[in-house]
TrEMBL record:
This is Response regulator transcription factor. InterPro entries: CheY-like_superfamily, NreC/VraR/RcsB-like_REC, Sig_transdc_resp-reg_C-effctor, Sig_transdc_resp-reg_receiver, Tscrpt_reg_LuxR_C, WalR-like. Residues 7-123 form the Response regulatory domain. It comes from Streptomyces exfoliatus. Residues 153-218 form the HTH luxR-type domain. Gene3D superfamilies: 3.40.50.2300. The modification 4-aspartylphosphate is found at residue 58. The keyword Phosphoprotein applies. SUPFAM superfamilies: C-terminal effector domain of the bipartite response regulators (SSF46894), CheY-like (SSF52172).
Length: 219
């Protein structure tokens, strides 16, 4: 992708929301909005037609809602990274979205700079865990988790080494590889290697799923 703009599709059934997001994104010369959609089915088609790198996907949409569209993206456009747009009132939907492989989520009142950071992070292959929004929502979800989920998470995490558990705990806090490296006095490349190993051992598709698992395990 070096030298090429990040190709983004915006999927939301509210034209004003789409227009606002477009205005923010096109302020960055390295981001190109290649398509828009007002429902989940059209979003999948737009992402495939325009070879999107990142899709900003609203949960509540007609024809095919965001949650139902996620498996379609994985089948039709597996290379596209999907960031779910949500509100605090949709906490349970957010959890389902993350478990279905989304690359993170943003609140609809996210600051412009954070929206751009999220798109850049997703395009780089990293899940975006907003320090303000994501951590707050995940913590609120974690308070209501069932004992069985926590027990399963602890069992999976037990397979990790002590250092891997330390890295996983920082993923649960929403830290980037660079921030985790500074915390643990490691290079960013070393942390990235640990993250890859952790994802493989835990059978997690991305950092978001690993972060949720860390929360469930009480790290």
């Amino acid at each position: 992708m070096a030298g090429q703009p990040i190709r983004v599709v915006i999927a939301d059934d509210e034209p004003l929301i789409r227009a606002g997001i477009r205005m923010i994104l096109i302020s960055d010369p390295e981001i190109e909005v290649v398509g828009e959609a007002a429902d989940g089915r059209a979003a999948v088609e737009a992402a495939r037609a325009h070879a999107a790198d990142v899709v900003l996907l609203d949960i509540q949409m007609p024809v095919l809602d965001g949650l139902s569209a996620l498996p379609e993206f994985r089948r039709a456009v597996p290379e596209a990274r999907v960031i779910v747009l949500t509100t605090f009132g949709e906490r349970e939907n957010v959890l389902r979205a993350l478990e279905h492989g989304s690359a993170g989520f943003l609140l609809k009142d996210t600051a412009p700079a954070e929206l751009i950071r999220a798109v850049r992070a997703a395009a780089a292959g990293d899940a975006y865990l907003s320090p303000a929004a994501t951590r707050h929502v995940v913590e609120r979800l974690a308070t209501g988790r069932e004992a069985a989920r926590a027990e399963e998470a602890r069992g999976r995490v037990a397979a990790l080494s002590e250092k891997e558990r330390e890295v996983l705990a920082l993923l649960g806090e929403g830290l980037s590889n660079a921030d985790a490296g500074r915390r643990l006095h490691m290079s960013e490349a070393t942390v990235k290697t640990y993250v890859s190993r952790i994802l493989a051992k835990l059978d997690c598709e991305n950092r978001v799923q690993a972060a949720l698992l860390a929360r469930d395990a009480g790290l």
